[in-house]
Structures are given as structure tokens and as C-alpha cells.
Specification:
Length: 267
């Protein structure tokens, strides 16, 4: 039994690495409206087309010493970090939830948020396509989560859970929109991008409305020291909030926290 668990854990981790490599492509290309298929993966400096041995997640980076095999240009370590992050999140999804609808939701949420972190940090954009696909897949997950087991599937329970997820997503969306309006009024300029507001809809679908409020608070705590460092390193004063909100959502989701649990920690 333990051996089987270890086997599936390794499989989930490896699939996470593979999908993480693809999510890098999505996060870097989709905001620029580029094809996810053409051109194939290549060095951004010399345009050398990467061969199969150069596309192995993590290992290719380590074997090549973090450099292009052809022109020796340095390869950003961001690619490897996000591959490992996705692998770790896929592993957690299996270890915590096993083979269940909750595991499906965890995999979808991890995938969507990894892409959003990459895209928002790099381009200050959260693509609508990612939010829409995420909402559809999370709605499917909520439907089957509410239906119970396949043997005794309940359509009434499934539709009720779907309604709860959509309702909480809408409330979280309105909450974030209210925060934006207040920020615009306070700072006399746009304080938050529209992508963050739409992202909050996904957060509400997964965490529920009360915990969505706490997510904003946790994201702000995580983001404050990181934003300070980024402001020192960058000439721009624009700091994307999406990555911090994504990290806070993942933490609260995998810890299975309630909003009362979080408030007691900071009380």
C-alpha cells in the first residue's frame, strides 16, 4: 500500500514537472497573443531549436549548466523554478486529496495560478482566456464534488455545490471590485488591474466568500516585503498583485484553513 502511494506520488510529481514546462510557455506567450505551438521551443537569444534532450524539465537545465547548448547564453532559472513548483503542487494535490473531485480542483487551481503568476509578474497581465478556462473547469469540479460518490451520485447535491461556488465567486468578485474603487478614490489613480478582480472570482469559487476576504489580507502580508525589494531593484513603481494573491490562495487551499483559523493566527 505504501509502495503504491509512493508510486503515484512520483507520477504526479513528474507530470507536474512536464505540465509546469508547458505552463511556462503559456505564461510567456499567451499575454503576447503568440501561438502556443509555433514556433517550437527555442533559445530566445540565438533562436536555436531545442532538441528532445534539451526539453527535459529541470534535468536539461542542470545538465547544460543553465546555458544554451548552442550559443552558451544563460537560461533564466525562472523556468526551472516554475517546473518544480508545479511538480510540488501536483504532488500535494495527490497526497492531500487522493483520487477525488477535490484532487481535480487542486490540480486545476494549481495550474491556473502558476500560469497567472508567470504572466502577471512578467507582463502585468492576467489573460482572460486563463480565467475563463479556470472558471469552467472549477465549476465542473464543484459539480462532481457536490454529487458525492459515483455509485450514489446526487444531482441535487451537485447543482447545489455548483451554485455555492458560483455565488461565492461572484461575491468575491464584487468585494475586489469594491477594494479597487476605494483604492482609485484614495490614490486618485488606478490602484488595481481588472485581472486581479477577475482572478478573485476563481478564488471565491474555491475558498468560499468569507475566506476570500482573508486571502486579500494574507496576500498583502506576503506581498509587502517582496514588493519593497522589487521596488528597490526595478525602476517601475508598478507591482502586480496577482502573484501574491495566487500564492495566498494556494497556501490557504492546501492547508484547508477556515477564515476563523486564519484570524486566530493573526489575533
Amino acid at each position: 500500500m505504501i509502495g503504491l502511494v509512493i508510486y503515484y506520488a512520483v507520477v504526479f510529481f513528474i507530470f507536474g514537472l512536464i505540465f509546469g514546462s508547458f505552463y511556462n510557455v503559456v505564461g510567456y506567450r499567451l499575454p503576447k497573443k503568440e501561438s502556443l505551438v509555433f514556433p517550437s521551443s527555442h533559445c530566445t537569444v540565438c533562436n536555436h531549436k531545442l532538441g528532445p534532450l534539451e526539453l527535459i524539465p529541470v534535468l536539461s537545465f542542470l545538465i547544460q549548466g543553465g546555458k544554451c547548448k548552442h550559443c552558451k547564453a544563460k537560461i533564466s532559472w525562472y523556468y526551472t523554478i516554475f517546473e518544480l513548483l508545479t511538480g510540488f503542487l501536483f504532488l500535494l494535490s495527490y497526497l492531500i486529496f487522493g483520487f477525488s473531485a477535490s484532487c481535480f480542483i487542486a490540480l486545476v487551481l494549481s495550474s491556473i495560478l502558476v500560469i497567472i503568476i508567470i504572466s502577471d509578474y512578467k507582463y502585468y497581465i492576467i489573460p482572460d482566456e486563463i480565467v475563463i478556462v479556470g472558471a469552467i473547469l472549477l465549476a465542473i469540479g464543484a459539480f462532481f464534488l457536490g454529487g458525492g460518490s459515483l455509485k450514489d451520485f446526487s444531482f441535487s447535491g451537485a447543482f447545489y455545490q455548483l451554485w455555492i461556488a458560483l455565488r461565492d465567486g461572484f461575491f468575491a468578485f464584487l468585494l475586489m471590485y469594491g477594494v479597487k474603487l476605494f483604492g482609485d478614490f484614495l490614490f486618485k489613480k488606478e490602484s488595481m488591474g481588472g485581472g486581479d478582480i477577475k482572478l478573485m472570482f476563481l478564488v471565491g469559487m474555491v475558498l468560499g466568500f468569507p475566506l476570500s476576504i482573508v486571502t486579500i489580507f494574507v496576500a498583502s502580508i506576503i506581498g509587502l516585503p517582496i514588493a519593497f525589494v522589487l521596488l528597490l531593484r526595478k525602476s517601475t513603481h508598478v507591482i502586480p498583485f496577482g502573484p501574491f494573491l495566487s500564492v495566498a490562495t494556494l497556501i490557504l487551499f492546501f492547508l484547508q484553513c477556515s477564515w476563523l483559523d486564519v484570524l486566530l493566527v493573526f489575533a
